[in-house]
Specification:
binds 2-acetamido-2-deoxy-beta-D-glucopyranose, mainly beta, 13 strands, Small secreted protein, 7-stranded mixed beta sheet, about 170 residues, globular
Length: about 170
């Protein structure tokens, strides 16, 4: 009983911290997807949700499986005297996770309203690869940001439920 209460409160914490709403037992992330050749945001709940670890070293901690990852890349945005780095309009290089370690990014869309911001420690998913979206999206990274791109094997996105047809923070 105590254990369940503990899990519940941890889940609530996660919901207010890491997550931006929705079911506290799932990781909630913004995803860039292509629809009818246009890049837009969706809000995804990653499946399956968090579970208490029984693995040595993390027993009892909430863990969530990110699925398989292939040829992940660690990327450093130049400092450039503190100027944000605008990569211009582009398609996602791969269908992939993006983990912001430091800095942060603002994502926007040339052909659709909305967008989202990810700060240091945040996560998003990008799936609008070449051939799926004519103009792609725009990412403006803070100077000196460090992030990891972690492609899904064979381009197949991690299991998820679409919980909104817009960014997670939009109502
Ligand atoms: C997307 O648009 C491009 C050029 O505008 C076109 O060549 C392509 O066939 C379109 N793809 C789809 C899936 O509609
Ligand atoms: C740990 O949990 C997994 C998944 O629920 C289960 O298959 C496995 O048997 C458990 N291992 C131990 C040591 O309890
Ligand atoms: C992202 O947008 C916010 C709000 O408009 C702004 O304060 C911040 O400087 C932007 N970050 C970057 C890297 O452009
Ligand atoms: C995704 O879900 C499907 C259907 O439930 C399942 O067969 C598959 O193993 C899951 N994949 C992963 C990576 O969890």
């Amino acid at each position: 009983m105590l254990f369940h209460l503990l899990l519940l409160s941890l889940g609530t914490l996660l919901c207010h911290g890491l997550n931006q709403g929705g079911d506290a037992s799932n990781l909630i992330v913004n995803a860039i997807v292509a629809k009818n050749n246009i890049s837009v945001a969706e809000c995804w709940a990653i499946e399956p949700g968090f579970a208490a670890s029984n693995v040595t070293g993390t027993v009892g901690d909430l863990t969530l499986h990110l699925g398989n990852i292939e040829n992940a890349v660690y990327i450093i945005i130049p400092n450039d005297h503190g100027k944000p780095n605008n990569g211009g309009l582009h398609n996602g290089a791969h269908s992939q996770w993006v983990f912001a370690l430091t800095g942060g990014v603002n994502v926007s869309f040339p052909d659709a309203p909305g967008g989202f911001s990810v700060s240091a420690g945040g996560i998003f998913i990008s799936t609008d690869v070449q051939g799926t979206s004519t103009n792609g999206h725009q990412s403006i990274w803070a100077a000196g940001s460090i992030f990891i791109q972690a492609p899904f094997p064979d381009g197949v996105a991690v299991n998820h439920t679409v919980i909104a047809n817009h960014a997670c923070e939009e109502k």
